[in-house]
């Protein structure tokens, strides 16, 4: 679910402007999972544009507090959401921790890095939601440390049905600054893509794991 329509449209436009999101239905990208995709999203680019990262920070801070109440801690999911998570925590005047994909192999073998007390209210910040699997593994790690997870806030989601099911199963509310639907509407409106290309992008979104595979 998006925080609000205006933010969703503005965020989509900014992501397209800096090529954080690339749309190329004719020459699809190949994800690490092996999926063929007409879209590629790299929200790390936001950090290189001060006015845009400040916009993302401010929208996160404002909407997180409005939706979840002010938490005790902001947690970022490594590595993509560490930068933006720190910005949000700083804006709200809150402690920050981050969550590794898995515990370290040495030292204290931490998966959650930073100071976190049992029972603290935490909002998790993510950069991108695809299936939601890696994001929810971070939530599990925080819960195992005794954190009370109020919800997750992400910059963008592809809006896959499997992600919706995964978050529902995990009993976790997800809100995003923008999403696939608003992105495509804005991309057509601003002539980044044609309506025919929009149709192709919608087809991919319905079955991303099999799209583009030869019969």
From TrEMBL:
<dbReference type="GO" id="GO:0000287">
    <property type="term" value="F:magnesium ion binding"/>
</dbReference>
<dbReference type="GO" id="GO:0019856">
    <property type="term" value="P:pyrimidine nucleobase biosynthetic process"/>
</dbReference>
<keyword id="KW-0665">Pyrimidine biosynthesis</keyword>
<feature type="domain" description="Phosphoribosyltransferase">
    <location>
        <begin position="59"/>
        <end position="165"/>
    </location>
</feature>
<protein>
    <recommendedName>
        <fullName>Orotate phosphoribosyltransferase</fullName>
        <ecNumber>2.4.2.10</ecNumber>
    </recommendedName>
</protein>
<dbReference type="Pfam" id="PF00156">
    <property type="entry name" value="Pribosyltran"/>
</dbReference>
<dbReference type="GO" id="GO:0044205">
    <property type="term" value="P:'de novo' UMP biosynthetic process"/>
</dbReference>
<comment type="function">
    <text>Catalyzes the transfer of a ribosyl phosphate group from 5-phosphoribose 1-diphosphate to orotate, leading to the formation of orotidine monophosphate (OMP).</text>
</comment>
<keyword id="KW-0460">Magnesium</keyword>
<comment type="subunit">
    <text>Homodimer.</text>
</comment>
<dbReference type="InterPro" id="IPR000836">
    <property type="entry name" value="PRTase_dom"/>
</dbReference>
<dbReference type="InterPro" id="IPR023031">
    <property type="entry name" value="OPRT"/>
</dbReference>
<dbReference type="InterPro" id="IPR029057">
    <property type="entry name" value="PRTase-like"/>
</dbReference>
<feature type="binding site">
    <location>
        <position position="130"/>
    </location>
    <ligand>
        <name>orotate</name>
    </ligand>
</feature>
<feature type="binding site">
    <location>
        <position position="104"/>
    </location>
    <ligand>
        <name>5-phospho-alpha-D-ribose 1-diphosphate</name>
    </ligand>
</feature>
<feature type="binding site" description="in other chain">
    <location>
        <begin position="126"/>
        <end position="134"/>
    </location>
    <ligand>
        <name>5-phospho-alpha-D-ribose 1-diphosphate</name>
    </ligand>
</feature>
<feature type="binding site">
    <location>
        <position position="106"/>
    </location>
    <ligand>
        <name>5-phospho-alpha-D-ribose 1-diphosphate</name>
    </ligand>
</feature>
<comment type="pathway">
    <text>Pyrimidine metabolism; UMP biosynthesis via de novo pathway; UMP from orotate: step 1/2.</text>
</comment>
<dbReference type="InterPro" id="IPR004467">
    <property type="entry name" value="Or_phspho_trans_dom"/>
</dbReference>
<dbReference type="GO" id="GO:0004588">
    <property type="term" value="F:orotate phosphoribosyltransferase activity"/>
</dbReference>
<keyword id="KW-0808">Transferase</keyword>
<comment type="similarity">
    <text>Belongs to the purine/pyrimidine phosphoribosyltransferase family. PyrE subfamily.</text>
</comment>
<feature type="binding site">
    <location>
        <position position="100"/>
    </location>
    <ligand>
        <name>5-phospho-alpha-D-ribose 1-diphosphate</name>
    </ligand>
</feature>
<keyword id="KW-0328">Glycosyltransferase</keyword>
